[in-house]
Amino acid sequence: MHIQRTLMTLALAVSGVLLAGCAGSFHYSELKGERFNRTNIDTSSVTITQVDGRSIPMWSRVWVEPGLRQITVVGPTGGAGRSDRLSTELQVGVCMRYWLVAVRSNRLNSDFELVVDHQEPMPGCTPRPGA
Questions:
Q1: Highest taxon of the source (predicted)?
Q2: Which of 76, 84, 94, 111 could form a disulfide with 44 if both were Cys (CB 3.0 to 4.6 A apart)?
Q3: Is 107 contained in some domain?
Q4: Which of 86, 82, 121 is nearest to 101 (CA)?
Q5: Total count of domains within the chain
Q6: Cα dist. 125→36, 86, 94, 128 in Å?
Q7: How far apart are CA 70 and CA 87, in angstroms?
């Protein structure tokens, strides 16, 4: 039992050191499929399913490199009870956080447009040299 506790403590200490070493080189951007502006009733949250053809596990944080990204999302359920998929390109800035939402022409339509609801710089993020 004592050895197991010691190994657990050692593992936590090593992971803390590794994370602290990476803190100065954090340079990713984040995508969120959530509404930032809650007062706009014409927007809905989306589920980000792929970035650049790579599947994204549900409910995980979506970290991406800056640049032009191909994003696939599933939108809100429309009047016919189905959700539509949409793939589009998004120019992702360095060290930015984006809130992506669906905008439909009306509540009964399942077709939607993907828009950036809000974007802001990510605290603690340092761009790569030359970026």
A1: Bacteria
A2: 76
A3: yes
A4: 86
A5: 1
A6: 21, 29, 9, 9
A7: 7
Cβ atoms 70, 60 nearer than 8 A: no
Determine, yes or no, domain membership for 20. Answer: no
pTM for the structure as a whole: 0.73
For residue 112, tell me if it sits in a domain: yes
Per-residue burial over 42-78, b = 16 or more CB atoms within 10 Å of its CB, e = otherwise: ebbbbbbbebeeeebeeeeebebebeebebbbebbeb
Query: Which structural domain, as residue segments, surrounds residue 58?
Result: 29-121
DSSP state for residue 97 in the 8-state scheme: E
